[in-house]
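Here is one chain, start to finish.
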Amino acid sequence: MSINAQGPLTSREPLQGGGVAEAGAVDVRPVDLPGNATAEPDPAGVPETAPRRIVAGRSTTQRVLGVANQVVRWVLMIGLALLFMYPFAWLLAASLKPRGQVFDNRLIPRTLVPSNYVEVWHQLPLTNWVFNSVLIAVLAATFVTLSSSAVAFGFAYFRFPGRNILFSVLLGTMMLPGAVTLVPNYLIWKYLGWLGTTVPLWGGTLFGSAFYIFLMRQFYLGLSRDLFEAARVDGCSYFGLFRRIAFPLALPSAIIVFIFEFQASWNNFSGPLIYLNFGSPKGYTVPLGISYAMTLYSPTAGGHGDYQFVMVASLLVTLPMLVIFAFGQRYFIEGIAAGSVKG
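Its structure:
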């Protein structure tokens, strides 16, 4: 059956089923087609061929624009990724070159010297540098995570007069340049007799960090207070609230603090330069040791320009941070997302 599109009816005509069509109405009565084929009636009585072509054309254009958008996006992402990876690729290539080809800017060495990775352990006390850096970074990251978490929980849970003022003063300390407190800190550690030791590099983290306190306080504020009130009813102490409820729930945020502080301690150069630059080079950290190696191999200081060992050492000391970030990436992303929502 098909639609009878003969135009509007001019009189009251009988319809199938006993109905009567009014004047001016559109005749939408079904019409038989050859071969017993049927078609649904069109209430408007207007062919749909042109609109369907327009919709199909628009869909095709949208698909083409979507594909082009994806291609441009991927090209930009790959280009930026290669741009940021170029220094690492250059460092890797330089570490595999002989002395005379280190700075030829070729990403594929003409002469491969894998023995550089074996010889560097005999040329430099790299093991001592790595051990010192790991020890300082672990102690600093652990202490600042625990102390900052405890202080942040106090600001988030307890309500006492002057809390907001005290927290504002704490945040105000972040505005002080490091050079302002450099000399007072040095005099304090000198008076305590700890110059030339690693204590000044991690001892200050026992008192927390303003930035980390702010970060973890925002996370604690997102926790339901009913959890702590219920625990207090059951006889839990305030320290138990922190140890058993608050800190385990804030573990993603704590891992973020640990990663940030570990990276800051691992890359710290000015601190070891001030407090460790007294005794044997074996007591140096990785950044200070690499600076010492640059001076050691410099031709102006009597060296022979064996910078390939410096490149090997620089590449090897980068691996621990990559491993830590790989294992803590999930907590890092979760903590950042949670802090952005709950803060």
